[in-house]
Write a structure and sequence with these properties.
It comes from Pontibacter rugosus. This is RNA methyltransferase. It holds the Pfam family SpoU_methylase. Helices cover 39% and strands 22% of the residues. The chain is an alpha/beta fold. It has one domain: Alpha/beta knot (3-Layer(aba) Sandwich), CATH 3.40.1280.10. It has a 7-stranded parallel β-sheet, sandwiched between helices. The longest helix has 20 residues.
Length: 179
Amino acid sequence: MRKLSMDDLNRDSVEDFKNKKKIPLVLVLDNVRSLNNVGSVFRTADAFMAEKVYLCGITGKPPHRDIEKTALGATESVAWEHVPDTLELVKQLQAQGYKVGSVEQAENSLMLNQFQPQPEQKYALVLGNEVFGVEQEVINQSDFALEIPQFGTKHSLNISVATGVVVWDFLSKILAQEV
């Protein structure tokens, strides 16, 4: 077995990627402190073809060397926007037809393995601050809370890891529906 080279991978150019149809998913970062986490979310959004990343509140925004350190150029391929207020953005997305889910441990949350995205429905997933999670007012406004089942002694995952888990799960379920 031979490791594939960059040429073997035959990746799209940034322009080709921008013009490709994306999965019906946007990511909303609610006051994420770590610029490395922000960069990792960009890279995940690129890998799994999310429509857009919203950077809310104190969340850092490109260009910044610490974001680029983990994004590895994904800030150029993934559409993004900085929005000062997460709650106002959630309301706007809902008005545009998005179902908004806060990725959070909350009363009556839906376990990720039980979540089934509906065909043709647009989704926005809110991921929160590394210490405080998603703001309560944002959870209150959300259409649902989505929880990643965990079986160890820790109570949460790093936001970049959580993003990878939920976006891959979303994409794999969307792809399964297309078969």
